[in-house]
Every structure is written in C-alpha cells, then in structure tokens.
Amino acid sequence: MHATAEIATVSGLSLSQRLIAGVLALFLGLVLIGGVGFASDMAIHNGAHDTRHALGFPCH
Amino acid sequence: MKLFQRIFFAAVLSGLAAGLAMSALQQWKVAPLILVAEAYEAAAPAHEHADAAARADGHVHGPEAWAPQDGLERTSFTVLANLLTSIGFALLLAAMSVLSGIGITARNGALWGLGGFIAFQLAPAVGLPPELPGMAAAELGARQLWWWGTALSTGAGLLAVAKFRNSAATGLAVLLILAPHIIGAPQLAAEHASAVPALLASGFAAATLATSAVFWLLSGPLLGWFSDRFARHEAHSSRASPAVTG
After folding, report:
1. Which of B2, B126, B157, B162 could cross-link to B177 by cystine, CB 3.0-4.6 Å?
2. Is A39 on the interface with B (CB under 8 A)?
3. What is the DSSP annotation of B177-244?
4. Interface of B with A in 145-204 (CB under 8 A)
5. Is A19 part of a structural domain of the chain?
6. What integer pLDDT is reported at residue A11 of this predicted model?
7. The predicted structure's pLDDT at residue B48
8. Residue B238 touches chain A, beta carbons under 8 Å
9. pTM of the full predicted structure?
C-alpha cells in the first residue's frame, strides 16, 4: 500500500517528466521565497517584514 | 505536465494549511515580541551611530516607503507573506522529492518536514540567530548569501544521506552540513550595543524556531498526504482508460 503510493508518486515516471516538473517547482518555490523573504524593494520589505523576522530571514 | 500539476496543487494546498496554522501560532507567540522590540528600537538614542555599519546599505525604514498600518492591515500582509512563503517551501520539498526520486508520502512526510526545518531554520539560525528589529547585525547582503549557502549545503547533505544511505554519502553530508559553520556567518567586526534586551531576543529565537518547527512538521505530512491522494486518483483514472498515458 505504502510502496505502491510511492511508486505512483515518482518512480513510475520518465526522467524527463520528473526533470521538467521538478525544475519548474524548484523555480517557482525559489521565486516565492526570494520575493517574500529576500527582495530589497522597500514596499515588499515592509509588507513582509514580520514574516521575514519570524522565519529567521536576514532582514535589516 | 500531469506530474507538475499534481505536485503544484499538493504544494499549494499543504502550504496553505500549514501556513495558516503557523500564522495563528506566530500571531500568538512571535508577533507581540516584534512589537515590543520595535518600541525599544524607536526609543534607542544610539540608533544612528551604533547601527551605522549595519545600515550602511541604506536598508532603513524610510518614512517615504509604503508600509502597512499597524493592526489588521499589518497582520493581513504578514499572513499573506506567510502563506506565499509556505507554498514556496512546500514547492521546494516537492521539487526535491521529484528530482531525487524519493517519494513523499503521508508516512514519511514528517521526515521530509524535519529535513526542511533543519535546512531552512535550524542550521541558518546557528550562525544567524533569528533577529528582532533593533538588533545590530553584519551587512545584509553577506548574511543573505550565508543564509542561502547554509540552507542549500545542509539540504544537499540531508538528501545525500536519504538517497544513498552509505558511508561515503554520510561522510559527504557531514562535510556539507559543517562547512557553512566552519566558514562562519558574517559577524560585526566589533561588539555593537543592541537596543533590544537579551531576554526578549532569546525568547524570540525560541518562539520563532518552535513555530517554524510546527509549520514544517505539518507541511511535510500534508504534502505527502495530498501527493498520495492525487497519485492514487490518477492511477484509478488511468486504469479506467488504459490507452491514455500520463
């Protein structure tokens, strides 16, 4: 049961399918975290200020 | 594209749920400490010259820049930023799962979450303790670079152990996890007076690590649960129409 779910999740797929989906998800994730946590724009900084401090991102 | 849709929706749903839970804990235990620290920051007379080195990059709360009003507006923007970050972290977990070929399930999700917590919260916090407003720190760009380097290096080390489970991978992982701390996080050259009391700062560090630990330990299993569900759903529909391949 556990093993079949795992196979269905990733290993039954071709390498290129996994590469495309994985790189796309990686890119989106980095854009979100970079934008909210690291962008130097002052308006973004002020809006996301408490999130940056609460998640331990370097802020000031 | 089927696979991407599946992991995208699993990441969005698990990120939203775990991010909402984290936001509630954060408003309860973390946000009040930030407000207290801001009162100290505003009252500090030595603000300009003590922090001059840290703020040489011009990264100051200028009066001209937009900022949310304290109260509901500020809380709403914080929750929004939390949710976007949570979805981002869930997407990174999902990406690592797909690229490494190590499935994420409801059962092993807590281990994935623990890995995320160690890579993105605990290891960076060892060199750069979570900061309150008003605490002096080294130059921002250098700290951001060290933060990313530490998260990536620690994450790569943990993935290497999970993937290969042999002594060579374990040795490499020890090196990758220790390297950022041997290099050392950027520090101020001299002791700078902080406007924030030490007890407030240490309480803040503990509260942020605790809330983010809850976030990661929810996020991992939820991502696994949604991934399981979507994969099983797809397996059912492809069995019903075997001519269609994913």
Report:
1. B157
2. no
3. HHHHHHH-----SS----SS-HHHHHHHHHHHHHHHHHHHHHHHHHHHHHHHHHHHHHHHHHHHSTT-
4. 147
5. yes
6. 58
7. 46
8. no
9. 0.88
